[in-house]
Every structure is written in C-alpha cells, then in structure tokens.
Design brief:
431 residues, mainly beta, Immunoglobulin-like, 3 domains
Length: 431
C-alpha cells in the first residue's frame, strides 16, 4: 500500500477515520502494492485517500522502465473514499524476459512510487476484477471474480484473506483451480462487518496462489450503521410574501458526523432558501441557521410548499413552508385624478385589476346621475389571464340647457371581490 504523508496508527492494509483534524494531510492509498502484471495485458490499480481532505487534492501519475501509464485525477470531500481506477500497460518485449518499473505519483500530497513487476507473457498470471469495490456497512455483500490468464497442467490453490476481518470478511478462504481449468472464473464474496465506530474504512482482499505472484483488490466500506439523523427546529414556518424578516430554521444532526447537506425548494417560484448547502464535521456539530423567503407574486393566494434537506447516507427531511399573500385586490383606474368630458361629447378612461382574482370578477360601472353621464360598456369582466390588461370605458356627457359645468362621480364596484373605486368626472359646459 503506497502512502504519501503521515497516517498515524494505520499500517499496510489497515483503516483510518474518515476525518481527523489531528493527523494533518491525508495519504494516498494505492492497491495492490506492489503490482505484478503480465506483459501485453492491462492491469488495474485503485486510488483512494485515507480520509476526507480539507481542500481539493490533485494526483498525477507517470511511469518508468517497462511500465506505461499516465494521467491525473482529483479528490475532494465528496469522493475521497470512492476508488478511482487507473490502467497500467507493459508491451511485450519479444525476448521472453521479465520486466519492471515504477508508477510515480505526484501532486498535492508530494511524490511516491509503486513498484511494478512485469512477468513474461508465457508464464500466465492471476487476475481479479473489479480492482476495487465500495460496500455499505449495513448493505449487501459484494463479489470479486478471480481467474488465471493461461491454462496450466497442474492444480493451483489460491488463499483468500481479508487484511482486516473486523471490517470485512471473505468467503471462501481458498479457491481451487483444477489442472487445465485455471482460466475458469471463480467468485470471492466480501461481507462488510457492522461496527459502532462511525468511520468509513477500507481493507484489501489478498489472493495468494501456490504458484505465481499474489494480487489484491480494494474494498471501501461506508459506515451507514451510525449515520446521524437530521434535526429541524422548527420543522414548519410561516412567511409573509416579500417580508423583510425571513423565516428561520436551525438545521442540525442528532449525533456528530461528516455530512454535506443540500437544501432544495420544491417550488423555487414560491420560496427561496439561503444557504443551499451546509457542511458538518465531527468537530463542528452546532446547528446551522437557514433563512427562507416567500416570493411575492400577483395572485392573492396563500400557498404551502416545502424545502427538502438531504445528504449522502442520511434520511431526508422536509421543512414545511406556508406563505401568506401580501396582495390586496384593487381596481386601478387611469387617469386616477379625474376625467374631463365636454358637454355633448365623450372621453375615455381605462381599468385593470392589481392582482390575479382567482376567479372571474364582474365590475359594474354606475354614474351618480345617469341622465348626465352614460358609460360604454356598463360593466367589465376580468380573469386571471386578463387582469393586467387595461380595458377602455367611453363616457358620454349629455347636453343640457344651462350654462354651468358640473361635477359627477362614476363608481366601479364588485361586491365581495374588491373595494369600490370612484372616478371624479368634470362635465365642461359648452353654452
């Protein structure tokens, strides 16, 4: 197992806590170590970090000798324990000779080397796939498949061992490859062991044949037995649309844990949440506050929605949000400061509603003296689709015999739907 940096208390094939601020930088763990491969055939190694990094980690690799491999990858707090596989090749040398070389790892964690032995392709070799697997501590067992590349004339027995049976056990303990059947694939079952430590762990499955080099596969075990549960205080809030004071909810965990949470509104058009992500560590367990704001709209309806709080390995919960509408329905008349109509002539004004009515509104128009003023039309109709569209009303002033101007009032009303609105009308005499 290749390790870059310090990994206190963790020997080859051991395991480490997912986070531990006292250990400094994480280490790069490479499996298998060392690597034995056969020329002309690809081999695979798996990379993980010993624990979650505080910042993004870059790992690049190159090769020396008769080994061919190059590339780079990134690790961060979200994927540090997920094995990343790289492929290694060694071309046939045509001389019937074994070869060797190194994989050289560089980057954020410094430099390290993995020794690679290349067997001649006439010798055959033991293979295992996949090179790495991730299991949940409380989940189902996983399997690997082992076989030899070439048929041999003798039986080969392969011992199968777990580097730490307290983390994962293997079955069977031996694989028996009969003569002339060494290429037949056989299955190794790996079963995670439930513990109470609360840490993600890793082990190697070691396969040691009676003839030829040993190989290994990496198993990462995610701790799901003791994942914390979400605590929401309160779990429901009521927020006024466009209010200066937002709704506040404290989001916490019932036990310490390394958890990244995402907060997702089911309807972003009704409520927005800030921040949208939260990060907890075993050293930082204090509840964190989120703010919820109701989005102002044109309707007059209070609404109910929710914000889902979720994270890897934990049970999601929802914050229930009720929004109270801040909209009062009003009749909007233009011009609002009054209308002048010449006697014997006409003038116009427009009407619209201030908000979605939720149902069709019939608005009646009435003059305080119908002998002097008439309106066309005498009523207006508005729906959710048309409430913002101004409708035109024509006012006709009748002739009279006097020489006086007059002041009249038009009332616009829809009882039970909106407060009545009035428009002052000045009839300008033409005598």
């Amino acid at each position: 197992m290749v390790a870059v940096g310090l990994l206190a208390g963790c020997g080859g094939g051991g395991h480490a806590p997912a986070t531990d601020a006292g250990l400094g930088s994480p280490s790069l763990v490479v499996t298998p170590d060392p690597l034995t491969m056969i020329e002309g055939r690809p081999a695979t190694v798996a990379l993980v970090l010993s624990r979650a990094p505080a910042a993004q980690v870059t790992v690049s690799w190159s090769s020396t000798g008769s080994v061919l491999a190059s590339g780079s990858t990134l690790f961060d707090a979200s994927n540090w324990s997920a094995p990343q596989s790289i492929t290694v090749m060694s071309p046939r040398n045509g001389r019937g000779e074994a070869g060797s070389g190194y994989l050289v790892f560089t980057g954020t964690l410094g430099e390290s080397r993995l020794a690679v032995t290349v067997a001649n392709d006439e010798e055959g070799g033991l293979f295992v796939s996949p090179a790495a697997r991730t299991l949940d501590e409380t989940g189902a067992a996983g399997t690997f498949v082992a076989h030899f590349d070439l048929t041999t004339s003798r039986e080969i027995v392969v011992a199968v061992r777990s580097s730490d049976p307290t983390v994962a056990t293997v079955s069977p303990s031996e694989l028996h490859f009969a003569a002339d059947e060494t290429t037949v694939r056989q299955t190794v079952t790996v079963t995670p062991v439930v513990d109470a430590d609360g840490f993600d762990e890793s082990v190697t499955v070691e396969l040691v044949p009676t003839a030829g080099p040993a190989i290994a596969a990496l198993v990462s075990v995610r701790d799901t037995a003791s994942m914390p549960a979400l605590v929401l205080t309160p779990a429901a809030v009521t927020v006024m649309e466009d209010a200066t004071t937002p709704g506040r909810v404290a989001v916490g965990l019932d036990t310490p844990g390394d958890v990244d949470l995402t907060l997702t509104p089911l309807d972003p058009g009704v409520v927005v949440v800030s921040p949208t992500t939260l990060h907890f560590t075993r050293a930082s367990v204090a509840a964190q506050e989120v703010q919820l704001r109701a989005v102002s709209d044109f309707d007059m309806t209070s609404e109910m929605t929710s914000v889902v709080v979720s994270g890897p390995g934990i049970t999601s919960r929802s914050i229930q949000v009720t929004t109270l509408d801040d909209t009062d329905q009003k009749t909007m008349v233009t011009p609002a400061n009054g209308l002048t109509v010449p006697e014997g002539g006409s003038a116009t004004f427009t009407v619209r509603m201030s908000a979605e009515p939720g149902a069709t509104i019939l608005l009646a128009l009435q003059s305080d003296d119908s002998t002097r003023l008439t309106m066309t039309p005498a009523s207006l109709q508005f729906s959710d689709a048309t409430f913002m569209t101004a409708q035109t009303v024509t006012v006709q002033a009748a002739e009279d015999a006097d020489a006086s101007s007059e002041h009249r009032v038009i009332t616009l009303s829809s009882p039970g739907n909106t407060p009545s609105e009035t428009l002052a009308v000045h009839i300008q005499d033409n005598d």
